[in-house]
Every structure is written in C-alpha cells, then in structure tokens.
Design a protein that fits this description.
The chain is mostly helical. The protein has helices at about 60-70, 110-115, 145-150, 170-195, 200-220, 230-250, 265-275, 275-280, 285-295, and strands at about 50-55, 80, 130, 135-140. It folds into 2 domains: about 50-155, Glutaredoxin, CATH 3.40.30.10; about 170-315, Glutathione S-transferase Yfyf (Class Pi), Chain A, domain 2, CATH 1.20.1050.10. It is about 35% helix and about 5% strand. The chain is globular, with a radius of gyration of 19 Å. The model is unreliable at about 1-10 (pLDDT under 50). Bound molecules: glutathione (GSH). Glutathione binds near residues 31 and 59. Keywords: Transferase.
Length: about 325
C-alpha cells in the first residue's frame, strides 16, 4: 500500500489520495463489498425484488450492469435507483446525490447507505452498488464481477431465450480479452485522465490507442468481438466507446483520434447502440453533464454543445460480417 500514497492532495476530486502513486499514476481502489450471489451458505440469495441496484447513468461500470440486466431480462427482478449525474459541490456531502430522496430507500446521498452498512467505510462511495432491501445494506459493489454474477448465478430468473453472455467454450478467451479491455481501455481512459505526471499520462494514452488499434483490426472481420454473438466483452468495450467522443476525447485528453475516426470500432459501436438494451440504457445527457460539469477545471460550467449524436443512428452494415475464428 505504501507505493500508492501520493505526497499531493489530488486536484481532481474523483480520485482519492490513496489512488495516486508517487509517479503520478492512477491506481483504482479495490471494491469493498464482494460477497458473491449464489445458493450456498454465505452467498447472497437469488430472489426476485429483493435487491436494488444504485447507478449513475454516466458511469461506465454501472452502465455495464444495466445492459446485462436488460439483455438477460433481470430488469424485471432488480429495481434501479438513479443518482444525479453531477455530484454536488455546495454541500457538506460531495458524493452522488439523488434528486429526490430515493423512492425505495429514502436516502438522499449514496454515502448514507454506505455508512449505514459500515460506519468505518473508507474510500470513494461508488456506483454500481447493490443494496439488499431486507437489511437496507450495501451487499455488493464488485463492479468487475457483477456482470458475471447476473449471467451465472441468476440464471434461474433469466428471460426465455436470454443471450448467453459468457458461453462456456469461450470463457478463457473472454477472460483474457476482458483483462486487456479493462486495463488499457475501460480503466485506460481514467489512467490518462487522472494522471498527475506527463509520463504517466503518455503511457496510458499510448497503451489505450495501441489496444484500440488492435481491436479495430479484430472488428474488421467479426461483427462482435467473438463472432455474431454478443458477449460480456462487447458490453465492456461498448461502455467506453459510447463515452469516447462525448467525454474522454477532450475531458480525459484521449485525443489521438475520435471513435468516429476508427471505421470498424465506430460501426461496431453503432451496431450495438441501435439495439434496445444498449440504446435504452445510454443517456448521453447524463454522460455529458457528469464528465464536463463535475470537473473543477470547468468553473463556468459550460456544457460542450457537440458532438452530433444523431450519427449514432446512421446505418452500420455489419450484419454480413464473417464469424470470429473463420
Ligand atoms: N467501485 C469501483 C468502480 C466504480 C466507480 O469508480 N464508480 C465511479 C463512477 S464511474 C464512482 O462512483 N465514483 C464516485 C467517486 O469518485 O466519488 C471503484 O471503486 O473504483
């Protein structure tokens, strides 16, 4: 832990001092509530209407869960509480707030439920967070593994003909690709945006674009990352791509090129966006507000007008692409 203590208080309030290394790298905190779902002792029982998922529509880690719940039909069994995309700066509390007290939990701030769960909780109060309504406590905020739980542990409540987001024969390959997508792309944009040294920023930037170049090649011949079937990996990649031009390109200085300058990644992202589970959970207004109006570097709170979001509905012509591995 000593290597990730920084001598400076970060100017960016989305980063805790514990998340900055001495050489200016952003090192994300680990999740505090990681009890898995399942039917064994000590696991979180699978039960319709027992849990509430607290999200920000702006947050990529929360967005993943919303897409998966819809694709699997679990949105009928787990309710959703949505925070305001801009964290308040004018109150004692600086964490995610609800516009009105949450209709089910009655809380005004996300920290209310984290601290009711553990008064000694240390770290950022983050979404996604799953609350057990029978105890009114946070039981899981394991943003890296939640999607896997929805797919595997919640199978008995999936809708008929739900997609298999983690097919058995592909699991090792999906895990490997997810690792790359997480380190270089999902978290890569944050490593670039939250770096406090030029070197750390440039390393993250180079790694991000080198991986996007590889994914661009891969998607030249495959409709999705693993052929014609949407998997966990596609959801992970989509949530960063859909935020790229509206937020990360300028907000996080990821500006070698825009998403729309990568023909295959851009067609792929539109292909996903034009499907209900993706479109209905993509809220560009929340994304823009969060990334541009939360930042302390925007004192006049001017919201960038572009880019042209109508392009997301333009034809993608990817239905005919060959299968993965052919
Ligand atoms: N739980 C993970 C990832 C989730 C996460 O970082 N969520 C962001 C939104 S995208 C959040 O809730 N941030 C609250 C904060 O920075 O105070 C973490 O602790 O890093």
């Amino acid at each position: 832990m000593s290597s990730i203590i920084n001598q400076h208080e970060p100017l960016n309030k989305s980063v805790s001092p514990l998340e900055l290394s001495q050489d200016g790298r952003f090192v994300r905190q680990t999740s505090r509530f990681i009890t898995p779902f399942g039917d064994q002792a000590g696991q979180l029982p699978i039960e319709s209407n027992r849990y509430r998922l607290l999200v920000s529509y702006a947050c990529p880690w929360a967005h993943r869960q919303l897409i998966a719940l819809k694709l699997l039909g679990l949105d009928k069994h787990i309710s959703i509480g949505v925070v305001n995309p801009v964290r308040p700066t004018n109150t004692d509390k600086k964490d995610w707030a609800f516009d009105e007290p949450d209709s089910v939990l009655g809380i005004r701030y996300l920290s209310d439920i984290y601290l009711a769960t553990d008064p000694d909780y240390i770290g950022r109060f983050t979404v996604p967070a799953v609350v057990d309504l029978s105890t009114k406590k946070v039981v899981n905020n394991d943003f890296l593994n939640l999607l896997r739980h929805w797919q595997l542990a919640w199978k008995s409540l999936h809708k008929a003909n739900a997609s298999d987001l983690y097919p058995e024969p592909l699991r090792t390959q999906i895990d490997e690709l997810n690792e790359l997508i997480f380190n270089d792309v999902n978290n890569g944009v944050y490593k670039a945006g939250f770096a406090t040294s030029q070197t750390a920023y440039e390393q993250a930037y180079d790694q991000l674009f080198s991986t996007l170049d590889k994914l661009e090649q891969r998607l030249a011949h495959s409709r999705y990352l693993f052929g014609d079937q949407i998997t966990d990996s596609d959801i992970r990649l989509y949530v960063t791509l859909v935020r790229f031009d509206v937020a990360y390109y300028n907000g996080f200085k990821c500006n070698r090129q825009r998403l729309i300058d990568f023909p295959n990644l851009w067609g792929y992202a539109r292909d996903l966006y034009q499907q209900d589970a993706f479109k209905q959970t993509t809220h560009f207004d929340h994304i823009k507000a969060h990334y541009h109006l939360s930042a302390t570097i925007n004192p006049y709170q001017i919201l960038p007008k572009g880019p042209d979001l109508s392009l997301w509905d333009s034809p993608h012509h990817r239905e005919q692409l060959a299968q993965y591995g052919e």
